[in-house]
Amino acid sequence: MQRVERNSKEYLMSVCFKLIFFTCFLGSFVYAKESGFQSGIGFTLGLGTASIATRARDGAEISKFSTSGSLVRDIVDDHALGWNAIGNSETLIDFGQKGIVKTRSGFSWHLGALMQKKMGNYFLGFRWIFGFNHDSSKISYPAGKWSIESIWRGLIGAEENYLGDNYGVLNDSAMSFSLKNKWFNSFIFELGYFAINKIQLFLGPGIVLQHQKFSYINKSGESLGGLSKTVAGPMMAFGARYALTQRIALGLEYQRQWLNRKTWHQVSKIIPDNIISYGMPTLKTNNNLFLVTLSYMFRAK
Q1: At 256, phi and psi to the nearest 5?
Q2: Which CATH number do you get for residue 56?
Q3: Reduced 3-state DSSP string for 59-86
Q4: Looking at the chain, which terminus has fewer C-beta neighbours within 10 angstroms, N or C?
Q5: How many whole angstroms separate alpha carbon 140 and alpha carbon 250?
Q6: Is 7 helix (H, G, I), strand (E, B) or coil?
Q7: Residue 37: helix, strand or coil by DSSP?
Q8: How far apart are alpha carbons 264 and 141 in whole angstroms?
C-alpha cells in the first residue's frame, strides 16, 4: 500500500512539473498585444517544499484511571517517612511533559483560482488554493510505570503528619507518535505593486485550513491507527511574479502558516490496550512553504 501511494505521488509530481514546463514553453511563443500584467480571472499552480515546526506542549487535562500494585512503607527510627506505591505492569505514556520533536520536510503543491484588479501601479487580488503539504513531525513522550509517593514528616505526638502525594511516571522508556500534514485550503487577499511593467511584488494575509493526521508508531517504526483533525489559523504570503506574456506569469513565493493549538483527546483509541495515557498530547504547528508558482489569466483586459 505504501509503495502504491509513493508511486502515485511521484506520478503526480511528474505531471505537475511537465505542466509547468509545457505552459512556460508555450507561453514564450504566445503573442501579446500588450505586455505586463492585466486585470482578470485565472488559475494558479504552485510547486515546492513544506517544512513543519511543531511544539509539543504540556498535556491538557489529566485522564482518570485506577492503578494497582505493591505498597512499600519507608520506616526510619520508627518514623513513617512515606508510602511508595508502584503501579501495575501496564506502561503509561506521560503526555503531561513536553515531547521531543523531530521534523521532516515534504513536497508541497496546490491548484487554485486567482482574481486581480489592476489600479495604476498597484493591484488588489484574491486567491483560493487547494493543495497538499507532505511535511511531518515525530514526537516522543516519556513512558514507564505509574508511581505515587505520599510524603510524611514523621510522627508528631502519637499521630503521623501527612503532607500530600506526588504523582508521576517512572521515565524508563519512550513512546513515539507522528503528526502528518495532508490537504489544505487557503484564502488569501493580495496587495501588490508593479516594480516594473513585467515584475509584480505582492503580499497578502489569509486563512488556512490544514488537515492533519496523528498516529502511534510501534517499535518496528510503523504508523498504526490514526486520528484526523482540520486545524485553522492565520497565514501570510509574499513573493514576486514575472510576466512571460499578457496572460502567463511565473513566480516565487513564500507562505507562513500559523496553525492553532490542538489537543488530541481520543489518543487512547490509537495506542495498544496494555498502555495507559496520562494526560493528552497538545500540539501547535507552523508551516513554511517555498514555492515556484505559475498563473494563467483566462480573461485579461
Answers
A1: -120, 125
A2: 2.40.160.20
A3: CCCCCCCCCCCEEEEEEECCEEEEEEEE
A4: N
A5: 41
A6: helix
A7: coil
A8: 14
What is the tally of structural domains in the chain? 1
Is residue 72 situated within a structural domain?
Answer: no
Interval 198-224: pLDDT, tens: 899 999 999 999 999 999 998 888 887
Q: For 264, list phi and psi in degrees, rounded to 5.
A: -95, 85
Cell 513531525 found at: 137
pLDDT under 70 in the chain at which residues?
1-36, 58-90, 146-172, 299-301
Contact 255, 46 (CB under 8 A): no
Domain-located, residue 116: yes
Q: What is the dihedral of CA 193, 199, 201, 207, to 10 degrees?
A: 110
* Helix, strand, coil % over all residues of the chain, rounded to 5: 10, 65, 25
Could you tell me if residue 235 is inside a domain? yes
CA 195 to chain centre: 35
- Strand, helix or coil for residue 47: strand
Task: For residue 277, give its domain range.
Answer: 2-63+94-143+176-300
Spatial neighbors of 263 by CB under 8 A, at least 6 apart, are 60, 280, 281, 282
Half-sphere exposure of 220 (CA within 13 A, CB side): 3
Contact by Cβ (8 Å): 154, 82: no
In a domain, 74, yes or no: no
The set of residues, in sequence order, having a beta carbon less than 8 Å from that of 234 and lying 6+ positions away, is 205, 206, 207, 208, 258
Alpha-carbon distances of 112 from 46, 232, 293, rounded to whole Å:
9, 19, 11
Let me know if 95 is exposed, middle or buried by CB neighbors in 10 A (0-12, 13-18, 19+).
Answer: buried
Pairing of strands 91-94, 275-278: parallel
What's the whole-model pTM score?
A: 0.74
Q: What is the DSSP string of 116-130?
A: EEEETTEEEEEEEEE
* Amino acid sitting at position 46: G
